[in-house]
Amino acid sequence: MMKTTVRLGVLLSLPLAACGGRESSAAAPGDAPEQAPAAQTAPAAQVPAQAPAGMPGTASAQPGTPGAPAAAARGTAPAGAATPAAPGTPGTPATKPTAAEAASQDRAAQILTRAEAAANGVRSLEADFTQTMTVPLLNQTQRSTGKLFQRKPDRFLMRFSDPAGDVIVADGRHFWLYYPSADRTQVIRTSIAEGGEAVDLQAQFLSNPNQRFVSTVAGEESVGGRPAHVLTLVPRGASPYRILKVWVDKEDHLVRRFEITEENESVRRVELRNLRTNHALANSLFTFTPPEGAQVFDQ
To answer: N or C: which end of the chain has fewer CB within 10 A?
Structure first.
């Protein structure tokens, strides 16, 4: 399956930099221009720096920094790109794996094939999410929680309970990003067509995974009381992150946890619990009306 997916940040690179989006570079409320038109093009300095990042719809000019979304690499490696010899060593000359490494890679490829098929069968999804972001350079870990809803092909909602009121909505035409925890006066709107053709959390890293990653089995763990395979995936080509780990449910093969290690060693993790799939989700769930007095900035 080849399709363009909205960057998660990922998960994902969902409200995937600092979770709940707190960054020290947040602009002061007084920085926003007064009496601006209802819709403007947001200068970089006016985008709420405290916005949750790393999930669909989040934006940053500098991928790989704590505020950047973890974008899924799309497609196969460019011609001539070196295949990693082992996880954690992207870009190194290709070497023949040992028998044990080859067996681990074969097993991981089989699990990823089932995970991709399971993701393709998901028409709608809802779950409680917990997101954490660890930034070694700042010696801090931040956490956010909330409820996530998705309906293929182009509806998405992340409603935060912590920080309360923050929200990301995809209504079929636009992503709406509103982070009152950072700035109640600003709403960011971006075209879904510019971010990707589909809003698909599970498929964010599961589109052609065996062509895009060198994967190995890292063991088994429990996620929310459910046993899961733990896989380590290293991008074959250029990517804003070094390593991706996914926890694939052993029963339904859906990914219930994503973990991304960026080039600067920051680690983002999104965990999904109480996951329900293929239930009816009304259009009204995926609507957003800017609060009175808030300015809409187009990106």
So the answer is: N
CA–CA dist 144, 167 (Å, integer) = 12
Cα separation, 114 vs 82, whole angstroms: 27
E-state strands within the chain: 39-41, 124-135, 140-151, 155-162, 164-171, 174-178, 186-191, 213-223, 226-235, 241-249, 255-262, 267-277, 295-298
Among 297, 289, 293, 299, residue whose Cα is nearest residue 40: 297
Q: Which residue has the tokens 């080849």?
A: 2
pLDDT of 94: 61
Give the chain's residues under pLDDT 50. Answer: 1-38, 42-91, 93, 195-197
Greatest Cα-to-Cα distance within the chain, rounded to the nearest angstrom: 67
Distance CA 8, CA 57 (A): 7
ω into 12 cis (within 30 of 0):
yes
Q: Kindly provide the residue ranges of all beta strands, DSSP E only, lying in 164-208, ordered along the sequence.
A: 164-171, 174-178, 186-191
Which pLDDT value is given to residue 199? 67
Residue 293 neighbours by CB distance under 10 Å? 7
- CA–CA distance, 296 with 188 (Å, rounded to integer): 6
Q: Which residues contact 152 (CB under 8 A, 6 or more apart)?
A: 122, 123, 124, 198, 199, 200
Domain with residues 19-23+41-72+101-279, CATH architecture: Clam (2.50)
**Per-residue pLDDT at 205:** 78
Distance (Å, rounded) from C-alpha 63 to C-alpha 72? 11
Helical segments of the chain, H only: 99-120, 192-195, 209-212
pLDDT at 46: 41
